[in-house]
Amino acid sequence: MSMVTQRKTTFCRICEATCGLQVDVEDNRIVEIKPDREHVVSQGYACVKGTRYASIQHSPDRILNPMKRVGSEWHDITWKQAIAEIGAKAKGLIADHGPQTFGHFVGSAGGANVLAPLFRGALFAGIGSKRMYGTGTCDTMNKFRVNEDMYGSPMRLAYPDVENTEFLMILGANPVVSGNTLYHLPRAAERFRDIGKRGGQVVFVNPRRIESAAAGEHLFIRPDTDLFFLAAFANELIRKFGVDRERVKAHMKNFNGLEKTLQGWTPERQAEVTGIPADTLRDLVRTHHQAKGAALYMATGVNQGRNGTLCFWLLECINAISGNLDRRGGTLMGEGLVDMAKQVTEDPQMMTSYDRHDDLPTVSGQQPAGMLADDILSDRGDRVTALIVEASNPLLACSNPNGRLDEALSSLELLVSIDLFRNEVGDLAHYVLPATTWMERPEVPYALQSLAGCCPTPYMIYADAVLEPPPGVRHEWWMYTRLADEMGVTLFQNRAASTLAKTAARVAYTSIGKHLPGPELLIDGMLKGGGLPGRKEMAKKHPHGLLLPENPGDNFLGTDRMLTSDGKVDLAPTAYVSTFEESVERRFEEEKQNADRIKLVGIRQLRRMNTSSANSPELVKETTNYAYLSIEDAGRIGVENGDLIEVESDFGKIEIPVRVTSEMMARTMAIPQCWGHKVARGLRHAAKHPGVNSNLLAGDGPDNIEKLSGMSHLSGILVDVRRFHA
Ligand code: SF4
To answer: Which of 267, 367, 470, 543: disulfide with 281, CB 3.0–4.6 Å?
Structure first.
């Protein structure tokens, strides 16, 4: 009997580009995924990760039932048993050690799940635990900290107006390969090229000549010296070209403090350590000043350095004092379906707090991932003894000096992994709980796109689930709600709402309940709250997305969307100025002293998204990652393509084969991150293509954490490199 093929329209949730997709489905299996040519923004673009997603969706390694580890043996169990045992164990540990003993870790794949955070947050708030960790403190948390201090909310996040800018400078990002972080820009290469076509300039500042550089110009910069470059850029702008005095006076404060802090940072001085000639910096500042609309943007490569918060502060200051913040062609503050930025200011969990014993911050609800091993291995009474890890593989994604995090997770009394696969964390866990894929969820795009409007071409899309989940798989919202029910935790600090959620979860997978609407009604509420049609109408009438009015700018400064207490942008928050003054000269001297040493940075690869695509035979063909070295460094060390090198930092040592390339700046080495699947018994393809985990070279603990945001230091690590002799 021939099967009926259904074509379903959806959007990808592997990265924040959220490209439109057309999925051909037969008998609840994907036959083919193609880019959606009619999608209002991606317009027929999708990368290989999206179009080959069937290899993950239908992987033979996917977990299809809850599993429990007994010794080294894994057994399928029922959901009833899983929830009862996990709930009872967690309750007992909380009774013995207090609520802070129960922690949670979420990966970046969890960011695409719009409903799960509401229920996860409600469970942990109900328990009274603040031990929420995540990969946010490995890649972006510095930005949320700066947004809070400059604009009043971690989620008040400006994005570059790519469609109208005449000058765009991008530091530490390779958007053509990895998508952009914290704003939505499918077809990035084409849109960058369009800037050049209309007479503008796009400049990528990066220690590697990245793939994105083909869409603009490229400047090498010594890793983790962006602070000196940005300080000199801002100072040159102030001294030579002046600032938008009117805008600064009306909407900003502490300009004099900023100006004073930057004194002495000349183009010549930064050139001593960055590798960017003084005249090149001067030319950049001049072009930036002359452009009708200019924007600076930075991402992971800078965020992961030792000065991520200070860098983003200065970058935002440049955008602000030059008059480009909240201006067409500069950087814009979007408007989402709801004003999430305002809402989070009413949630103390989401605002920066200093209630850890070590005075490290909790930013945007996340404690530093680089402290997780310490918090578990500590002998303090409030040490973490129980942890749920959702959609993540922190053993590979986080600093893990010589496998210390493996040791920590192995020592937990309760470790639960919620994932599609039994990855390395799952292997150490007591329970693994099978989650749905994004193909199995009804959804709107990422919260920052949908609820904060970080979207150069504003639009909204809603997609129903493309596939029915396997019968033994559950949504995360359901797991958290059932656990709350089992543990007697009140959700949402509201008995009525809690009872409603628990009742919905109890019946959700019964024969009657599966026909009743669940929390996806909340998505209806979001859409309608934003003045749009509900889910059904969106899916029917606007399956390829609904374009919304353009953001014209001039709708943030001086309005009630600016959320600082006095309505002004703080250009010189006290903590930043004091950190800058205390550290900048010391760091500058360290840079000069270490100028001859090699620094390690990470790379994103087109066929991999963090650890989540590692088990796809369609995407991962090579058996290992490589260390990319410049021709000069390879010659000095005496290695050629394919030779094995030993890389040693203050924290660990790895062996990895070399690729010699003219793409790399001298004294810089790049290793693609999130490899190292050496013990992944539940990821059979990844285990045969293991590669090497470069995060074994990164330090953890308080000395390796950026104090303002809790970010781990994962980029710009000093290493010694030598030929490996077995
Ligand atoms: S660019 Fe991102 S959203 Fe688009 S198809 Fe690739 S992974 Fe998916």
So the answer is: 267
